[in-house]
Structure formats: C-alpha cells, structure tokens
Amino acid sequence: MNIINSGTSFLQQHLLGVLVVIVLLFVPALFAQEADLFGDSSADSLLFGDEFDLGGDDISFDFDVETPTEGSAETGDDFFGDLDAEDEADPAEDSTDTTDDWGFGDDDLFAADSLGDSTLTEAYTDHPLDFRKSVQGTFMEGTGVHVSFYSPQIVNEKLDTWYSHLDYSLSIELPWHYQMDPLELSFLVDISSFNFENSFPAGGQFNGVSFMPYAKAEVMGLEVEAGAGFFFPSFGLMAGLGYSVQMHSIYISTGYRWNWAANIDPIGAAWWLEPRFTMGIRLW
User: Fold this and answer.
1) Phi and psi at residue 178, in whole multiples of 5°?
2) For residues 111 and 113, what is the distance between their CA atoms, to the nearest angstrom?
3) CATH topology of domain 144-282
4) From CA 120, how far away is CA 154, in angstroms rounded?
5) Predicted structure pTM score
6) Is there a contact between 183 and 217 (Cβ–Cβ < 8 Å)?
7) 214-270: per-residue pLDDT in tens?
8) Domain spans of the chain, in order of start
9) Which distant-in-sequence residues (6+ apart) come within 8 Å of 221 by Cβ?
C-alpha cells in the first residue's frame, strides 16, 4: 500500500516534467515541412511553387524554362504538335491570279495597248446589247444615234389658237465626250420636225425642219441640255431637262424640252414646251 501511494506521489510530483518530455518528442514532428501549405515568395510551395506539376511529361506551368529559339539545336514539339512542319504557304501571297470576288480580272473590261489607250476586250463587248465592237475602226466609233417622239403640250398665248401635231427628231451624238466624274459632257446635233397651223384667224402656218446643235451634261442619269440653231427660216433656242437609263449600248430617256422661235409669221416670237420620249444607241 505504501508502495502504491509512494508511486502515485512520485507521478504527481513529476507530472509537469513528463508532459514537457512528451511535447518535446512529438510536437517537432508536426513542423517537419520546410514551408507552409502555400509557401512564401522565396521558397517552394505545394500549390504555387516555381513549377506546378500535375504529373506526366506533357503539361507543366514552369515559367522559368527558356523557350528554344529558332535555329537552336534544342527544339521540341509544343502542346499541339509541331505546327511549323505543317504550315503551308499562304495562297493569297503566292497567287498571281488577279480575279476579284465578282469574277472580273483586272483586264476584263479594258486592256491598255502600247500607246496607253484603253481598248475594249472580249469579256465586255460580247454582250448581245453591246454594239461597240462592230463599229471599232469606223467613222461610227464613239458616236450615238437617238430618235425622239414629241408634241407641244404647253404654249404661250400667241400659239393658243394654233394646232400642233406629233413630231419626230433625229439626234447625232458627236465623238467628243468629256468625263468629269460624276459629270459627263457631250455634244450633239438635232434635226427635228415642227408643224403648227393657225385656226383663228384663218390662215398661217409654221412648219418645217429645225437644225439645233446643243450640249448635254449628264450626272447619274439626270440630263441638262441647251442649244441654239434654226427653226427655218427663224432663229431659235432650246433647253431641256430629262432622265436617262442606259443598258450597255441601248439608251432610253424621257423629259421636257423648251423651244423658242424668234419669228413666226404673223405672230412674231413665241415659245412652246413639249414632252419627249427618246431611245437610241451609244457606241462608246
């Protein structure tokens, strides 16, 4: 009994020492790692060290590994394989084909001759409504022919009692054209019929053929024309406004023309306004 009591008394007296010994033996094992879980900026870390390897030989986030430069003896495949071996020359760089997205080449419409002039090529002139190829080298090249139908609609008071009729005109477009984008200036000669007959007082006629050189300016289909000539035997002036549509060589126009004659027997000077419908061919 004394032995048991004395043993218990010994443990009570030396309990603190025993606990210290246990702590010294086991606690250092808890700090056996060199760094914490995340590490610091100067040491390796389990998650964010210099190299985060998930295993295997293919994937690595080692940012300190130098990339082999071109021409270096130490080369290897990248993650997707050797792309350099599969690269092909860009066809857009090596191609000499000048065809655009619409199927026209640079020389489809026009080709420069030895003098630097533009000549029409097969790709454009083979259209059935294009007649320019058939007149190349002739006196008709670069010209045009237009036929108009018209009849006076509005007249001044001096012509109120004069009857008028359906008339016709033939216009020749001269081979002088000036292109000042978007304006095109051309010159024409117009030969027209006119026919007025007085009904009251009885008697009096004004009829014949007019000869009228004039200039025409065209911008995006809008036409403005002006000229001076003769309503034989009287001197006359002309001005017009219209709109035109061209389909290859075919030309269609509609508008109004104002005419003024200096001397109509027996009423003197007078003017009239006529609507016109024109159709024709342009050969340039």
Assistant:
1) -125, 120
2) 6
3) Porin (2.40.160)
4) 45
5) 0.55
6) yes
7) 999 999 999 999 999 999 999 999 999 999 998 888 899 999 999 999 999 888 999
8) 144-282
9) 243, 244, 245
